[in-house]
Amino acid sequence: MSSSLTPLRIGLIDMNNGHPNQAIRSFRGLIGSFLDRARIANPSLVAAIHHVEPRNRADHPPPNCDLYLSTGGPDSPLDGIKESWYPEYQRFLDTIVGETIRRGDEARAAFLVCYSFEVAVAHFGVAMLEPRPRKFGIMPIYPTGEGMTSDMLKVFGDRFFAWEHRSWQATGLDERRLARLGGRLLARESRDGVSKGPGLMAFHFAPGVEGTIFHPEADRPGVLNWIERPEQQQAVRDAYGELTYQRMRKTIDDPRRLARTYSLLLPGWLQRRFNALAPSRGWQPIPPPSYDEQHGLGDFEHPASDSAPASSDPTA
Questions:
Q1: Each residue of 89-128: pLDDT tens digit?
Q2: How far apart are CA 47 and CA 230, in angstroms?
Q3: What is the per-residue pLDDT across 123-151, written as a single tens digit (0 to 9) for each?
Q4: Rounded to whole angstroms, how far apart are CA atoms 245 and 227?
Q5: Domains of the chain
Q6: HSE-up of 240 (CA within 13 Å, CB side)?
Q7: Contact 270, 287 (CB under 8 A)
Q8: What pTM did the predictor assign?
Q9: Number of Cβ atoms within 10 Å of the Cβ of 62
Q10: If phi over 0 gives left and psi between -120 and 50 gives alpha, with beta otherwise, what is residue 19?
Q11: What CA dihedral angle connects 243, 249, 255 and 256, to 10 degrees?
């Protein structure tokens, strides 16, 4: 079948509850860059982004997408699961898992970030959710042994850096529950699970569903937009001190840190999921993303514009 007749549909599930944010722009930039790469091998590839907002508009996750990116957002995830949008989001997660068990790589797949990750922790019951003092900034992440062999994190070795902005944490891993789901813990807040904090940072929750509590979509414009606001500058100084604030400003431009995560983690997930669908869609597979620290910051500094038509209509 011609690739022009087999569109790729990407669902962008916006959990920001109507709050202005940089994340949607950044997610769209990542998707646009991915589609640019996909069209090198598939010039007639048709793609569309379906942007929905469950929390503030009562939208349902679009039912006919191939890949889903579900974002972070404000407020308590435990309050969120009492709201009217939550049962439909639960059904969405369970449907992805069920389809993947039945259909394997040809099924839909979802990647969940921060608030969405926290909601999934509660839904799947793989850990406890608890509030914590707000953590924000560029922080180290430590893959577990399974994480270092996972498709998601094996490119990073035993440590990498990511943007965090959260007031909740997942702790107290239920290993039996996770094993029954077919999931794996992929990263922790501390190498030893204790010294920097007990947080569980990345999961393969179950077949077809993965996610991180940190923000792999964070790019330089988004981080600078946040960190250069006077009230946020003061918040960082109050929480971590002037020296740490200045180091944080400097590390934004360190090509070994956020730029590497931005360039490899979500682009790698999109590439792998696209290639898994390719044989049944008549698409040519595409190579994994690469990142050369000597080459510069690339899209991390100047994100690609959205190159796919957008729609908020789940049936479009």
A1: 999 999 999 999 999 988 999 999 999 999 999 999 999 9
A2: 39
A3: 999 999 999 998 888 999 999 999 999 99
A4: 9
A5: 3-311 (3.40.50.880)
A6: 18
A7: no
A8: 0.91
A9: 24
A10: beta
A11: 40
